[in-house]
């Protein structure tokens, strides 16, 4: 057991996880309460190595999310703040806007409902007929579309680095947390795989793909488990086929947006992601298999409930994973001129998807508290977009816990 000695602390707030949410939290704490000592522990040799650095770089407008939800409120607010942050700190970014395109008649009611939802969330949208799509994307075909001008792109890795630097926190890389000891009146102590011991008054868990494990190490049952889904991307060999960002109409039953095309700040166009179960929490390829992590996933009842409920959807994703022809067919629904040899394999990402015991895929951000601890348990897309307001909310809870610990 890691011994926690009363009155001996290395920091006030100990943040586990050096992705964009953890670094935004550190930034928000030191802004709200100057002089607060914050230490960030990250198991990788640098920041933003997983979800933050392995996505399409889109600053989402907030159009998809249920009005009143944390995702809706934080994404709408966070998008504007993210673009402002990038402007102030000289981080590459742009606001090209995007199209959400219906390619089948059955999608038209959902497209219209999405436009209404966007308006409820305070987002300016323009509904387009088939002929008007070419004004924005000459090579894209569809029956109708929504144009969302507020959607942007940026370099989230650069944002994360700048947040870490500006926070003034102690950033410690290569620190994989393996044990946590938390005792009343004595704060929190963690032991890392390297054998270091770090003591803090309050723990903040922003561990992403490992957040449920960290919560349980701290003695808090999160009532969910992370089930990893790999997002497989291609790069478009002819990037000139797409001007900006093009999305299909999403299936409301899933927290995934479908195969889309997104031009990045580097000028390249990402195509994807295709979402398939990963065989490890950091399983960026089929060849990365970690039996212990698979066993953890399969032992969770929610995994089996989810599989029974959504196996047809999953079968389609698996087919596109193993067949470039099938993946190309999905892209051609939006971009008919694309050829199979236009798609070049690109690095994949893994989504840390929280699944409840009954198989429900958690759709909103999920933040829970324990004694002297705050756990961020579900923060997939649009968490990078919303990272500044999420960080402030987590910081508020952490500072409240810090105040209570002081009393």
Offer a few descriptive terms.
single chain; alpha+beta; FAD/NAD(P)-binding domain; 2 domains; 8-stranded mixed β-sheet; globular
Quickly describe the structure.
This protein has helices at 20-32, 70-89, 108-120, 156-167, 211-217, 291-299, 301-322, 324-332, 387-406; strands spanning 11-16, 38-42, 58-59, 93-94, 98-102, 125-129, 144-148, 152-154, 170-173, 177-183, 187-192, 197-205, 225-236, 245-248, 260-263, 269-277, 343-355, 366-370, 373-378. It is of the alpha+beta class and 407 residues long.
Write structural notes for this entry:
The chain is α+β, with helices and mostly antiparallel strands. The protein folds into 2 domains: 1-97 and 151-224 and 362-407, FAD/NAD(P)-binding domain (3-Layer(bba) Sandwich); 100-150 and 229-355, D-Amino Acid Oxidase, subunit A, domain 2 (D-Amino Acid Oxidase, Chain A, domain 2, 2-Layer Sandwich), CATH 3.30.9.10. It has 9 helices and 19 strands. The chain has helices at 20-32, 70-89, 108-120, 156-167, 211-217, 291-299, 301-322, 324-332, 387-406; strands spanning 11-16, 38-42, 58-59, 93-94, 98-102, 125-129, 144-148, 152-154, 170-173, 177-183, 187-192, 197-205, 225-236, 245-248, 260-263, 269-277, 343-355, 366-370, 373-378. The strands form 3 sheets. Strands 1, 2, 9, 10, 11, 12, 18 and 19 form an 8-stranded mixed sheet that branches. An 8-stranded mixed sheet has the order 6-7-5-14-15-16-13-17. Helix 1 (20-32) crosses helix 9. The protein starts with 10 loop residues before the first strand and ends with a helix. The model has no long low-confidence stretch (mean pLDDT 94).
């Amino acid at each position: 057991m890691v011994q926690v000695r009363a009155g001996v602390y290395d920091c006030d707030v100990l943040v586990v996880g050096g992705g964009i949410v953890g670094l935004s939290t550190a930034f928000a704490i030191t802004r709200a309460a100057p002089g607060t000592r914050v230490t960030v522990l990250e198991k990788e040799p640098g920041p933003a190595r997983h979800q933050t650095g392995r996505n399409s770089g889109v600053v989402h407008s907030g159009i998809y999310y249920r009005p009143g939800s944390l995702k809706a409120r934080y994404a709408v607010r966070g998008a504007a703040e993210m673009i402002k942050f990038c402007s102030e700190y000289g981080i590459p970014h742009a606001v090209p806007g995007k199209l959400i395109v219906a390619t089948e008649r059955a999608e038209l009611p959902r497209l219209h409902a999405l436009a209404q939802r966007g308006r409820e969330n305070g987002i300016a949208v323009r509904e387009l007929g088939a002929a008007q799509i070419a004004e924005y994307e000459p090579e894209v075909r569809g029956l109708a579309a929504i144009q969302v001008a507020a959607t942007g792109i940026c370099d989230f890795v650069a944002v994360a680095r700048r947040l870490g630097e500006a926070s003034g926190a102690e950033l410690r890389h290569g620190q994989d947390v393996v044990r946590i000891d938390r005792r009343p009146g004595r704060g929190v102590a963690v032991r890392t795989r390297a054998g270091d011991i770090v003591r803090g008054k309050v723990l903040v868990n922003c561990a992403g793909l490992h957040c449920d494990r960290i919560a349980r190490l701290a003695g808090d049952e999160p009532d969910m488990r992370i089930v990893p889904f790999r997002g497989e991307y291609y790069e478009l060999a002819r990037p000139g086929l797409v001007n900006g960002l093009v999305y299909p109409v999403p299936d409301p039953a899933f927290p995934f947006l479908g195969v889309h095309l997104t031009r990045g700040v580097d000028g390249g166009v990402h195509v994807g992601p295709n979402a398939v179960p990963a065989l490890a929490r950091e399983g960026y390829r089929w060849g990365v298999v970690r039996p212990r992590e698979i066993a953890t996933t399969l032992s969770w009842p929610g995994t089996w409930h989810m599989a029974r409920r959504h196996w047809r959807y999953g079968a389609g994703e698996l087919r596109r994973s193993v067949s470039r022809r099938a993946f190309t067919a999905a892209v051609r629904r939006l971009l008919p001129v694309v050829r199979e040899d236009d798609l070049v394999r690109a690095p994949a990402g893994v989504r840390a998807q929280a699944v409840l015991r009954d198989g429900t895929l958690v759709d909103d951000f999920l933040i829970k508290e324990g004694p002297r601890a705050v756990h961020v348990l579900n923060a997939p897309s649009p968490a990078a977009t919303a990272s500044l307001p999420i960080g402030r909310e987590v910081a508020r809870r952490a500072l409240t816990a810090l105040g209570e610990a002081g009393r």
